[in-house]
Amino acid sequence: MTRSELFAQIQQKSSFLCVGLDPDLEKIPRHLLAEPDPIFSFCKAIIEETADFAVAYKPNIAFFEAMGSKGWDTLAKVEELIPADIFTIADAKRGDIGNTSKLYAKAFFESMDFDSITVAPYMGEDSVTPFLEFENKWVILLALTSNKGSLDFQLIQDQNGKALYQSVLEKSQAWGTPDNLMYVVGATRGELIGEVRKAAPEHFFLVPGVGAQGGSLSEVAKYGMNSSCGLLVNSSRGIIYASNEKDFGKAARKEAEKLQLEMKELLDKYL
Ligand code: OMP
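Above: the input entities. Below: the structure tokens describing the complete assembly.
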């Protein structure tokens, strides 16, 4: 999917919502356990109920691969089920020496047909560029993550006072363009999102951390939105586990709609 197609969808749906698919057998409604593939049935219901409000889906690969080969089959079926006009993110956080990254890219872009993959920048340019060689496919590079551990390395400053995440932003912009490279920026990072936006004015940001992790959607929009929105804000648990009963699909729909309505207001305000 191209950047202009993504922006067109955001405008059409008045939404920059990414629904995170983190399906955990321990957490899904109990009645689904009688289904042949409970995780697939769960994701199917979530996708059907939220597709009106979502511009992206982000299956977190860990939740599928934890189930072994069956989990990979389920992931492939889920990916195929997502409507073609909705952006798909394989949240795999990969990255390795070049020839290995190339095969990770093939796995997610060719064997499966994801639009994008999350990639860790730690191993540097040759670990990232193999993912950028696929037409209309995207790398979403970890820049400033939402978790507590982001303090361990990402905010360490060099002798000139530049934080590591800033070096990642600066350097990696030579590897890709705003048409094939996005950044992960945690919603829990408040006004630091504004610093990231200054460093990468054109790029889309994938912003996890609203909902269960407590990040503020209005702050994200205030500090992070650019003239083509430039944001995909993810919520996983806050949507998919809104109810643990038979009404879980409808409850997810309600949460997704709530976020979409807030997003509409923010788009009207800042775009
Ligand atoms: P919830 O906290 O349930 O909304 O889930 C957040 C999702 O985003 C999970 O799948 C995380 O793995 C992912 N995530 C973060 O929470 N923080 C980050 O900094 C980056 C990610 C990610 O790359 O998606």
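Note for the figure: Residues 3-270 form a domain with the TIM Barrel fold (CATH 3.20.20.70).
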